Amino acid sequence: MRTADASAATGMRIIGPAVAGLIMVVAGSGARAQETSQPDVRLTIGSMVLGELPTVAKVQPRAAEPPRSSWRHTFGSERTTREVPVRLPKVGFAADLVALQGVTGVAQARQAFPADEFNLIVSRQLMRPLPQVSDPAGQDQPPAIATTAVAVRRRPDLRVTGQEHLTRLAQGPSGALTALSAGTAVHILAGTRPMWVLSINLAEGCSDPTPENSSSVACQAWELQLAEVARWIAAKRAAGEAALVAGVFHRVLEKNNLPETLAILPRAGGQGHASTCTARASDIASTYLLLSTPGEAPAGAASPDHPQPGGWSFVDGPRPPADAPCALLTDLVAR
């Protein structure tokens, strides 16, 4: 009996810690899985030129009421009415974030993206002093510079946690006659998923098939801007951060015309939307979204069917309704 009891006791000493350790391992694995498991996050991202929003027509002044018989009323009763300024309507589509180009003022952007619905981050390019020029009426006014901004919908699970201003994009080569647009980047947190979004509007007028070898000022400006965007993307990837570039490139993108940092990125383009736009279809046709995620595989690896684990990827998103302004819309999902 004592031998059997000793064996049983010995067995309990051996088996007991092993079972307890197994339970602890399983419990620990479950806890880690619970900690690392995150729900999918889906965002609708847009890019559009703000100047392509249709304007609301001016409200015509009301006709003066006909005079009445009472002299007290008709004496000095000439009435004047004030015209309501031209306004931009709200955008005709739903998006969580919109990269804006062609922004000439904060008030202009706020008319389309009101403060009670959107956070608005505008390029500092609008804030710096500008040289005075004379308009045809003889009044000195600063020239309007069309720059960039980002509008982020106000939601409890979507926050703006940082911003960067790429003012070097506005520094063109020697001899450039037109003002260039600076870039505006915001760092967002969608649930627990962070991402940078950069709005750009590159130089116009570069039509050479090989812009990197062109002597035109427009192509030189375009190449300088593109290199700056590539450096920005490379820095974000080196820091392990996801980043999206959205905006107008003013030419169809070919891999052989892009720096390798940008050529390998999955992208969405607006060429298929050009036929539905009634104004400046060339802008939407050269609008792109380029997506960079940490530890990215070569081009083509990221797709709706094969998203990168834990990263952002493109998925089929909504198209703007027929009566909406020209805009590129797509959905991003983080799994």
Main attributes?
335 residues; alpha+beta; Deoxyribonuclease I, Chain A; six-stranded mixed beta sheet; 6 helices; globular
Blueprint (SSEs and pairs):
Blueprint: H1 2-36, E1 41-49, H2 71-74, E2 97-103, H3 106-112, E3 118-122, E4 133-134, E5 140-141, E6 147-153, E7 158-166, E8 183-190, E9 193-201, H4 217-238, E10 243-248, H5 260-263, E11 267-269, H6 281-285, E12 287-292, E13 312-315, E14 328-334
Overview of the structural elements:
There is one protein chain. This protein has six helices and 14 strands. It is α+β, with helices and mostly antiparallel strands and 335 residues long. The chain has one domain (41-334): Deoxyribonuclease I, Chain A, CATH 3.60.10. The protein has a six-stranded mixed beta sheet with strand order 3-6-2-1-14-13, covered by helices on one side. α2 (71-74) links the parallel β1 (41-49) and β2 (97-103). The chain starts with a helix and ends with a strand. 33% of the residues are buried. The model is unreliable at 1-35, 56-74, 78-84, 129-136 and 296-309 (pLDDT under 50).
